[in-house]
Design goal:
CATH class of the largest domain in chain A: Mainly Alpha
Largest sheet of chain B: 2 strands, antiparallel
Order of helices and strands of chain A: HHHHHHHHH
Largest interface: A-B, 36 and 25 residues
Helix content of chain A: over 70%
Strand order of the largest sheet of chain B: 1-2
Strand content of chain B: under 5%
CATH superfamily of the largest domain in chain A: RNA polymerase sigma factor, region 2, helix turn helix motif
Radius of gyration of chain B: 53 Å
Low-confidence stretches of chain B: 10-14
Number of strands of chain A: 0
Strand content of chain A: under 5%
Order of helices and strands of chain B: HHHEHHHHE
CATH topology of the largest domain in chain A: Rna Polymerase Sigma Factor, Chain: A
Number of helices of chain B: 7
Oligomer: heterodimer
Distance between the termini of chain B: 137 Å
CATH architecture of the largest domain in chain A: Orthogonal Bundle
Mean pLDDT of chain B: 69
Number of helices of chain A: 9
Structural class of chain A: mainly alpha
Low-confidence stretches of chain A: none
Largest sheet of chain A: none
Helix content of chain B: 40-55%
Shape of chain B: elongated
Chain lengths: 181, 191
């Protein structure tokens, strides 16, 4: 994550005359990364689109009051994480079902993968879906985004030690699931 | 201590799968990311407007019973409806213009046709439908130049032309030829 870009975003956004420009830079910098983080949690594209838009709307409304005690990207990722989890909780509440491992498997079966996705890739995605939400988030941020433990700790509000343990369990579970299939 | 070492090593052990499996394999609609910002901004505007709770009622003051006091006008005194040129239906205009042009065009062609047919009656057809019997003498006469013919008329001179070919080719004798010249020329036109 480029700290210079984050600095630029804040500078532009906090100035009323360049606020829109700052927001555009924010969206363009983070849209894809946030999308994939959210998509791996909620699976369905339309759901991911709703959550992603809500994330940016929150950024628009709250960036003025951003306290520079954390980095901008960790702040944005935190919003995305919280929104994704809130979305799933609401969905569970609306459907009144418990999203068990079997449900995730079903969800994975309905997910649309790209035409050239190979077998290992699909197995990996399906295995990831069988992880609990928070473990899935940690796995995504560590494996796909390649963030450091302290950055993930800031995003998830969890200690570094707990994250390491969570990641460890996630990795071994996925390996077992992928080999089993 | 050994257990902790093993535990730490496992934590540091990166996942290794065959090939590059870090790419995102979920299908995304075409141009999704390009149009994302626009969708977000529309939602922001919508949310801001709903936050303001703006009423859509009209707040300008109007005189009492102003709207209800509108009366329908008498047909006799109804003013002429003025159609603004801007609101004029251009399609209708084009149709009318096309019709007028067609009528004028047909009229003009008809005029031309009628005009031609009148003069045609006065013209002698130059087709080969008519059977003109023209004697060889007359053919010879026609071969003279206009000037020579005019000269003969003005100066009453005999037209002297070389009719030797004619005489040689025809079966007539000179006497028969002269007799023929003295007689009336009869142009038989058979229709």
């Amino acid at each position: 994550m480029s700290k210079e870009v984050d600095k630029k975003i804040l500078e532009l956004f906090l100035n009323q005359s360049t606020r829109h420009e700052g927001f555009t830079l924010l969206v363009n910098t983070y849209k894809e990364r946030l999308y994939w983080q959210i998509r791996r949690i909620v699976v369905n594209h339309d759901d991911a689109d709703d959550v992603l838009q809500n994330v940016f709307i929150k950024c628009w409304r709250s960036l003025d009051s951003f306290r520079k005690d954390s980095l901008l990207y960790t702040w944005v990722y935190r919003i995305a994480t919280n929104e994704s989890i809130s979305f799933l909780k609401k969905k569970r509440g609306a459907d009144k079902i418990e999203l068990s491992e079997e449900a995730y498997k079903l969800q994975a079966g309905k997910a649309e993968f790209v035409m050239d996705a190979n077998e290992i890739e699909i197995r990996l995605e399906k295995a990831i879906l069988q992880l609990p939400e928070k473990q899935r988030i940690v796995f995504h941020l560590k494996y796909y985004e390649d963030l450091k433990y302290d950055e993930i700790a800031e995003i998830t509000g969890t200690s570094v030690g707990a994250l390491k343990a969570s990641y460890f369990h996630a990795v071994h579970k996925i390996k077992d699931l992928v080999k089993r299939d | 201590m050994t257990k902790n070492k093993e535990h730490n090593e496992k934590l540091n052990d990166p996942i290794s799968f065959e090939g590059d499996n870090k790419r995102n394999i979920y299908d995304v609609p075409k141009n999704y990311f390009e149009s994302l910002q626009e969708s977000i901004e529309e939602k922001i505007i919508e949310a801001d407007l709903s936050d303001l709770s703006i009423s859509k009622r009209n707040i300008y003051e109007t005189p009492n019973q102003y709207i209800s006091s509108f009366k329908t006008l008498d047909q006799k005194t109804e003013p002429t409806r003025i159609i603004s040129f801007k609101n004029f239906n251009s399609n209708r205009f084009l149709k009318i213009a096309a019709s007028v042009t067609l009528i004028i065009g047909i009229g003009y062609l008809g005029f031309l046709f009628l005009d031609n047919s009148k003069t045609n009656n006065n013209q002698i057809s130059n087709t080969n439908d008519f059977d003109f019997e023209i004697s060889e003498y007359e053919t010879g006469l026609f071969n003279e130049t206009e000037d020579e013919l005019m000269a003969s008329l003005i100066f009453e001179e005999d037209i002297s032309f070389d009719n030797s070919d004619l005489i040689n080719e025809s079966d007539l004798t000179i006497d028969e030829l002269e007799e023929y010249l003295e007689s009336d020329i009869d142009l038989s036109i058979e229709f």
